[in-house]
Specification:
250 residues; alpha+beta; Immunoglobulin-like; 5-stranded antiparallel sheet; 4-stranded antiparallel sheet; 9 strands; 46% helix; NEAT_dom_sf; membrane
Length: 250
């Protein structure tokens, strides 16, 4: 009897442990499905954008009807001032659910957008404003990892239409064209400044290299002259010692 009770007791513990493991695996699966990784590129290229380091990865993803709602966060250090990066548009729509919060010594700018097809490249227009340091508008592109997307399901059209507010804004296309034009002009100006800076740095490097060669040659000549002088001095001292020893004055 006691033996059977002991076996039942062991089986209960084993089943409890199994249920715990299955629940834990389920939670991990849900957490994984709620996030999506991505890359940030310079607009129209596969080159990593300088803005990539500011985007928190992974992004958060949920399903609303037959569309995905992606929430992204831009995190900047406090020495760049408060929330220096602002999203003007993403995937042809105004950013939704924008929130600005503090995260330790950093500033978080979070926003969301809706999209039915994440296999395509998603473009965005952002403004960067660090007073006295850098001010510009840039176009960037995102490529999302769609290897493990949550499945879509039929949903509530009211929620979907609420989430997508701003997609059909009549003035949005005009704003986007204006921002794209500004970004293009600023990119050209930035490229010109970068070229001028590269030429200036190259000239400085050449001048520095020339000066270094001159200094090296001068050091070599001084070293040789010093060694020759030292040899002559040692020889002279030796000569006078020898002379004093073998040819003393009377």
């Amino acid at each position: 009897m006691r033996k059977n009770q002991g076996i039942n007791y062991i089986w209960r513990w084993m089943l409890s442990g199994l249920m715990f493991c299955l629940s834990f695996i389920g939670l991990l699966s849900v957490a994984h499905a709620d996030s999506i990784n991505y890359q940030t590129f310079k607009y129209g290229t596969s080159t990593t954008s300088m803005a990539d380091g500011y985007y928190v990865k992974p992004a958060q993803i949920t399903v609303s009807g037959n569309k995905y709602v992606i929430t992204m966060t831009i995190r900047t250090a406090n020495d760049l001032t408060a929330w220096p990066v602002v999203v003007n548009s993403i995937d042809g729509q105004a950013p939704q659910n924008v929130s600005k919060t503090r995260s330790g010594s950093s500033y978080d700018y979070s926003y969301s957008f809706t999209e039915s097809d994440l296999n395509k490249v998603i473009s965005s227009n952002i403004s960067i404003n660090v007073p006295g340091v850098y001010t510009a508008t840039h176009n960037i592109s995102f490529k999302f990892d769609t290897s493990d997307l949550p499945s879509k399901s039929g949903g509530n059209s009211q929620t979907e239409s609420t989430t997508a507010v701003g997609t059909n804004d009549p003035s949005l296309n005009t704003k986007l064209k204006k921002l794209t034009s500004q970004a293009s002009s600023q990119s050209k100006a930035a490229s010109k400044k970068e070229s001028q800076l590269a030429v200036s740095i190259s000239q400085q490097n050449l001048a520095t290299a020339k000066q270094n060669r001159y200094n090296a040659a001068l050091f070599y000549y001084v070293l040789v002259i010093g060694l020759v002088g030292l040899v002559i001095l040692i020889g002279s001292v030796g000569y006078f010692i020898w002379r004093g020893k073998y040819h003393p004055r009377h």
